[in-house]
UniProtKB/TrEMBL annotation:
The gene is Kcnj3_0. It is a multi-pass membrane protein. This is G protein-activated inward rectifier potassium channel 1. It comes from Formicarius rufipectus. The keyword Ligase does not apply. Pfam families: IRK, IRK_C.
Amino acid sequence: RRERQRFVDKNGRCNVQHGNLGGETSRYLSDLFTTLVDLKWRWNLLIFLLTYTVAWLVMASMWWGIAYLRGDLQQAHDDTYSPCVANVYNFPSAFLFFIETEATIGYGHRYITERCPEGIVLFLFQSLLGSVVDAFLIGCMFIKMSQPKKRAETLMFSRAAVISQRDGKLCLMFRVGNLRNSHMVSAQIRCKLIKSRQTPEGEFLPLDQCELDVGFGTGADQLFLVSPLTICHEINSESPFFCLSQRSLRSEQFEIVVILEGIVETTGMTCQARTSYTEDEVLWGHRFLPVMSLEDGFFRVDYSQFHATFEVPTPPYSVKE
């Protein structure tokens, strides 16, 4: 079957784009910090470089302008003359003085004198502006680098979901795993069934979301993810798959979105990993191969068999039938 458009890709990216926002785009500027954090790295680095470059050039030009208006540039080499900033002869020297002041390098060759009130005011303005720019941009870069998005790439989901019997009940199952030794604290898993439907009143609901029970009442949705786990959804009278059979699965069109959330043990930040399964990726009458084995003093996980399944005898009928 031709692959259709997904609501959520296998890597967790949501295929939703917002258009025709009109005047609502101003909301992005009102929350400028979050907007910068959400930008791609190339735009963040470009804004970082441009902001500092423009700020440095503007402030250096203001120091050069004070020296020019006071006539310090013409009498800079006169030892009897008291300039606003000592040893500032031209724009490059004014730029170096600004950098030395802003970065608190303090070489000592260029310094501001007490006979320059406008220079003192500019110095205070420079210190305040520099602190604000540093806090904003460096904070933005730090938050972006510490985002737990990369941690989600070490959380694995099986390529396919399976339907087979477990404990005498027909169940929809898929597998999750954690590739790192560091744990996910308070890990919780949720499932959403994305399927278009029409209400009895005739209203068409595109991409209607329905919750799939993966153990809310029993606490099975709270995971201790130190080894690969098989998540199970029991197909019963309350399940949206109550009328699903092996034959009807071929003609169905739905998408199961899986959301795994937890706190990264090393950073304490919340991480979310997502994936999805379409009807083509649900295997009827299959079961996952075991991946755990007991070694000398520890349990070993064989991730080469993480996605592997094998066929088991399963009735082709729905639970309703």
